[in-house]
Amino acid sequence: MKKDNQQRRIDCSPKNLVNGEGDIETFKEEQKKWQSQIVLTPNFDLTEIKIVAGVDLAYWSEEGADFGVCSIILINYVTKEVIESVSVADRITVPYHPGYLAFRELPLILKAAVCLKHQPDIYMFDGNGFLHPLNMGIATHASFYLNKPTIGVAKTFFNLKGIEFVMPANKIGGYTLIEADGLVYGASLRTRENVKPVFVSCGNWIDLETALAITMALVTKDSRLPMTTRLADLETHKQRKLLKNTP
What we know:
Strand order of the largest sheet: 3-2-1-4-5-8-7-6
Number of helices: 5
Structural class: alpha+beta
Strand content: 25-35%
Largest sheet: 8 strands, mixed
Shape: globular
Distance between the termini: 51 Å
Number of strands: 8
Radius of gyration: 17 Å
Helix content: 25-40%
C-alpha cells in the first residue's frame, strides 16, 4: 500500500542539507536524527513496481581539487530495458570520512535526480543502507531526500562491529544474514554460481526479503551485480574518462 511520503517531491534545497564542512559530531547527530525514522517495511506493492533506478558515483582529482560524477540509470523492471540515463558532474568539497560517505555523495546525487524526466519507483545504490554503524549508509540517508524506497547493494563487505559475514551456499539466490547484537543489518547474497557474493541491505521503506527479491530480479548473466547499479557504475567510468580528457 502506498503512503504519502512516496508522493512527495525530491527535497534538495540547500537549507535541508547539512553543511558538508561540518565536523564529525555534526554528521553523527544528523545521522541519529534520521535513524529513528527508518522504516523496515515496504510502503509499496511489489506488483506495482515499474521503474527502478541505479545510482553510482566516480571521483577524480585535478590540480588539487576533487571532482565527482553521479550517474542514474532507469530500468523498466518488467522488460529490463533502459528507460533513461542522466549524469551530473561537479566539484566535491566534502572530504571522505569513514562512515559518513553520504555527506560527500548526497549533494551530487540530488542534482542528478532532479534531472530525471521519469519518476522511479525505487532507487538502488552501489553502497550500503542499514548495514552501517548507525544504519545510515548512503541508500538510507538519500531516501529521506528522494522520498522513495531504497536498497543498498555493495560489492565489498562493510566490516561492522568486528563481525564477519558467513559465505552463502554456492547457488543462485543463496544468502546468509548479517547480524550483530541480535539485529539483522543485511545479507550476503549469491547472485550467480561461482562468483563472489554481494551485500544487500535495506535503505528505507522496504524489508530485507523484498530487497533481496528485487536485487535477484535485476541480475543477468552479464554480472553478479543487478543491472541497475552495474550500468550506473559503467556510465560513471565512461563519463569520468570523458570529463578528465576534456581540455
